[in-house]
Amino acid sequence: MPATLDLHSSLLDTLWVLWAAVLVFVMQAGFLCLEAGTTRTKNAINVAMKNVADFAIAVSVFWLVGFGIMFGDSHHGLIGTTLFGWQLEASSSWVITIFIFQAMFCATAATIVSGAVAERMPFLAYTWTALWIALLIYPVFGHWTWGGLLGGSEGWLGSLGFVDFAGSTVVHSVGGWVALAAVLCIGPRSGRFNHGKPPTAFPSGNLPLAMLGALFMILGWFGFNGGSTLAVTAQIPGIIANTVLGAVGGILSGMLMGLRTRRYADVMYAINGAIAGLVAVTASAHVISLSAAFGLGAVSGVLMVLTSEWLLSKHIDDAVSAIPSHLVAGIWGTLALPWVADLTLLDSGLSRSAQFGVQLMGVVVCGIWSFGSAWLLFRITRRFLPIRVSPQAEKIGLNLAEHGANNELNQLLEHMRQHEQQGDMRQRIDADPFTEVGEIAASYNRVTTALERAVGHTRVMLRNLRDGVITWQADGTLTSLNPGAEQLFEVEALQFIGQPVSQLLPGHTLTPGARHEIKRRCADMQVRYLEIQVSEGATGSVSERSGMVRDITERKQLQEQLNRERDLARTTLASIGDGVITCDASGNVTFINAEAKRLTGWTLEEAINKPIYAVYQLLEEASGEPLSNPARQVLTQLTPVHSTEHCLLANRDHTHTPIQHSASPIRSRSGITLGAVVVFQDVSLTRQLTEQLNYQVSHDNLTDLLNRRAFESALSALLNRDDGHHVLCYLDLDQFKIVNDTCGHLAGDELLRQLALKLKDHVRSSDIAARLGGDEFALLLPDCGIERALTIAEALRCDIEQYRFVWQGHNFGIGVSIGLVELNAAHPMQLSQALHASDAACYAAKEAGRNRIHHYQPDDHSLLEKHGELQWVQRLQYGLDNDTFRLFAQPITAVCAAGPGYREILLRLEEHGQVITPGSFLPAAERYHFMERIDRWVIRNTLAWLGDQNRHATLPSHSLWGINLSGASLSDADFCHDLITQVAMAGLPHGTLCFEITESTAIAQLSHVSELIVTLKDYGCRFALDDFGTGLSSFSYLKQLPVDYLKIDGNFIRNVDMDPIDRAMVEAIHAVGKALGIETIAEFVETQATLDTLYHMGIDYAQGNLLGRPEPLTHMAGHRIKVMPR
Fold first, then answer.
1. Which of 528, 588, 623, 705 has a CA that sits 20 to 30 A from residue 512's CA?
2. What does the pLDDT read at residue 454?
3. CB 498, CB 492: distance < 8 Å
4. H-type alpha helices, 62-122
5. pTM for this model (two decimals)
């Protein structure tokens, strides 16, 4: 609309605008017809009433407040402040004319929402919405765009150059945005969208009425666009022509899109295409050509269809497609204006791109204001007023639910519902034969009469039927039993109807579509068999099941007799998966199955009536001599033959197959032998798998050498021989760990495979090579002198020394240390002695510098120490098996301040009443892999003792008990898992346990140890780093280990009071610990001078004989503790 207007317009202009207002009012009638015709008949009155009500509310509110907000004197371009209802009476006729014209616009904006939320929004909530549209939402945005129409300053958006000639955005987009907010807040109509199914298309009540409404709207749009000139000018014919062509373009594109998407000319797409085309040209009807108007309308029709389909895909239910027709088309028309308008006619002073920017701003501002305020309105309204009708109201229709508007159809439906509830088919409905509803009622009466006759016939049939028929609901409630069922179950129907079906058929689950066999004992104590076939159906919305019951006792008896007569066939069929051959009493073949055909090479046609010994030929496996035919044995001895030994079956192609067979006589019911059946199975695969399994049991999977178990068996057999001279070689690779650590286990495995091949190259056919585990191998040289053995060992050592292993660019040199032990009658050995001696010799070779050979001698001084360790192996094993280890505890005392009572658990070994300290046996335990088992013993018994003390409340409060963990144990994942489990199960108070780990162990397994520490700390455990200071990189790793205590190595403590270097080291360790929040413990405190020095240095704890000697845990137990750890 023009930004300003002369208040003294001519009378002709006034008459034109008033006539245009009348035409716009016709649009209200068009909306009523369109929306009432599009929705279902049961809601049509409600929709029409909303159109009438929103017109009255919109005009009255717009008169009182809205017109003043929209066209009054502008306050900073934001809102009007004059021309409110009480001020209009004194206004000129022109102002009153503009009020009438704009009141029609306001009603149009409000009534757009009515169609979108049709059939589910209460009448009161809708009128409340219409009030706010007319009061605030439409007038405020209208002021921003058209403010200053009656003089004064423009609205802020209009002053920027925003153009909307007749309201594409101001009227239709505003209404469309409010409609979008409404449908999102209210939700879709019941049954519109169902999961996994396409949207339900609700039937329109009266499509011709809807199309008439569309034509009314086109007529009204002549005034909508033509009257927006606000004067009789030469532009009016062109504006009306553009309006018509926009509508025509929308109709045609809507129909074509309907044909493309739905394969038929969709009525609603044609109607809404017309509306979309009208809305699109409304913004620019005064400045565009006829062809541009047609194009705008055509594009708007396409956009309308695409938007409608998109809304359906998102389950947004717009009952009349108001959002695609008004909102989307309004946005399109507003944004297209800069590109289709004649700039000379537009006369905004802006370029096309600048004008587009202003238009885009207007669209965005409209969306934010209209949608945002509407969304807020609905959110607030739903707190005190329902914005959606009840499901029951939606079901019966809003005509009746909201307006009490009853009709013949509703009355008919009510009678039919009553009929359904009562279930009396004798009732009839009064029918007026001169109305359509009366015809429906008469037809319903005829159907009811026919149904009554059919039900009567069915009842007669069921009463006379010998079979039983029972029915029950899905929840198991019996609904009927016919007389046949009463006789079969020996019950009366009245006693069981309404009871669970399980009472009639206890212990049976009746599955629809299946036959069930029921065994029951009758009143005369005879057993009878019933068969019930279950089917499922529905009576209305209630799921029902029925069962046809039949007495099958006679059939059952016949079936059992038939089964007995088929015993002969069953004997054959039971073994059909194996080879099966049957013969008659003369030994001639009567049957041969497919598997027997494969194994013998004879077909059934070829073998029939042939002697069985010609078809089934057996050979002894070792000698190849023929064996007697089992069928002939059966026919001669008349007893079954079962062979547990394997034999060979000769095939016609001269191949042999290992088999296992059995044979049985075939007898008649009278006991006469009719023939024999031979059943046999191919055991080739079983034998192959057995041989493969035996090989895998005795060989190492990686190197294909013998494994330790098979090697020890061979060695034991050789040692049991009294003659001969043999040599045992024990091989341990040097520098193998470097390959594993550098290139990983795949490289290590490949190296072991290649070295195994080299080992095979140096042995005789009679020699035995094996992999004992890891990088350890063994070689047994039977009947071989020591000189020859040394030559073989040296050749092997040199070959391995010269070998270079290449892996991914890395080149490695490998050595081998070999220990030789002579095995002869002069120096007899047991298996364990021979293995230990060879291991000791290999160890001596390593100790002597690696990559060399050591020949074991019984008086070899270099092995005396090793031999002592070997003796410890048996002693340690005995100690673990017989529980001769003992637990001691030594106190750790606070030096500078009071601290928790701390004791370290120490281990001793008791032999013959003597207590042996760990310094004597731990080296051997570490060498021969006993540490993990010893640590398990210590942890298990310590936790048992502490748990016992805790349960009897004799465990001192705030006491701390230290347990040492070895590096071997920490590298064992199973040990760490079991340790966590045992600590969790012990249930000791937090702060009771402290695990001590040596510094070297922690550094060697840094990440693993850190993870274990974090896990056990969750259970309240603490950690101490033992022998701290011995490593060169102690401090660099300390910050990565979350330990609680540092136990300073005793070598620094012994002379700390006299040696300044030791004193400096201890001070440094204490300072680092203090900085990291770690307390320090000094070990081997033996003198008072040492203790005084530590006190002045601030050391936290001290341990040594000066402060307390180790004592057995048994001396510390309370008197109620009966079981002590050992």
1. 528
2. 67
3. no
4. 67-71, 85-88, 93-116
5. 0.46
Please check whether residue 280 is in contact with residue 78, taking contact to mean a CB–CB distance below 8 angstroms. no
Q: How far is Cα 670 from Cα 688, in angstroms, rounded to an integer?
A: 45
The fraction of the chain above a pLDDT of 90, given in percent, is: 34
Determine the Cα–Cα distance for residues 740 and 747; give it in Å rounded to an integer. 7
The stretches in the chain having pLDDT less than 70 are: 1-9, 406-439, 441-442, 444-445, 452, 454-466, 486, 493, 507, 513, 537-543, 562-577, 859-871, 899, 1030-1037, 1117-1126
Q: pLDDT tens across 141-156, in order?
A: 999 999 988 877 889 9
SS (H, E, C) 680-696: EEECHHHHHHHHHHHHH
Architecture of the domain whose range is 566-688: 2-Layer Sandwich (3.30)
- Cα–Cα distance between 70 and 1 in angstroms, integer? 13
Is residue 546 within 8 Å of 534, Cβ to Cβ?
Answer: yes
For domain 465-559, the CATH class is alpha beta
Closest Cα partner for 136 from 372, 320, 322? 372
781 contacts 789 by C-beta, under 8 angstroms: yes
| Partners of residue 534 on adjacent β-strands | 547
Check: CB of residue 776 under 8 Å from CB of residue 734.
no
Tell me the torsion sign for CA atoms 538, 541, 543, 544. negative
699-858 carries CATH number 3.30.70.270: yes
Distance of CA 107 to the CA centre of its chain: 53
- Whole-angstrom Cα distance, residue 796 to residue 778? 12
The answer to whether 78 and 153 have CB atoms below 8 angstroms apart is no
Q: Which residue has the tokens 């008004």?
A: 326
Asked if 838 and 823 count as a contact pair (C-beta separation under 8 A), the reply is no
Contact 889, 949 (CB under 8 A): no
Q: What 8-state DSSP symbol labels residue 582?
A: E
Strand partners for 460: none
Place of tokens 């204490």: 1070
Q: Is 903 left (phi over 0), alpha (psi -120 to 50) or beta?
A: beta
**Token pair of 610, please?**
């042939």
Locate 966 and state its tokens. Answer: 């070895």
pLDDT at 460: 60
- Residue 916: both structure tokens together: 């042996």
Cβ atoms of 759 and 796 closer than 8 Å: yes
DSSP 8-state code for residue 1114: G
- On the 0-12 / 13-18 / 19+ scale of CB atoms within 10 A, 70 is buried
How many residues does this entry show for the chain? 1126
pLDDT above 70 coverage of the chain, percent: 89
Give residue 15's pLDDT. Answer: 93
**Using CA atoms, how far apart are residues 313 and 325, in angstroms rounded to an integer?**
17
CATH superfamily of 11-384: Ammonium transporter AmtB like domains (1.10.3430.10)
Contact 1078, 1041 (CB under 8 A): no
Write down the architecture of domain 875-1115 according to CATH. Answer: Alpha-Beta Barrel (3.20)
First to last CA, the chain: 105
Q: Give the span between the Cα atoms of 82 and 72, in whole angstroms.
A: 4
Pairing status of strand 589-592 against strand 579-584: antiparallel
621 close to 658: Cβ distance less than 8 angstroms: yes
Any idea where the domains of the chain sit in the sequence?
Answer: 11-384, 407-464, 465-559, 566-688, 699-858, 875-1115
Question: Do 465-559 and 566-688 share a fold?
Answer: yes
Check residue 228 and report its DSSP letter. Answer: G
Structure-token match 């169609």, residue found: 115
- In Å, how far from its chain's centre is CA 404? 52
What span, in angstroms and rounded, lies between the C-alpha atoms of 815 and 802? 9
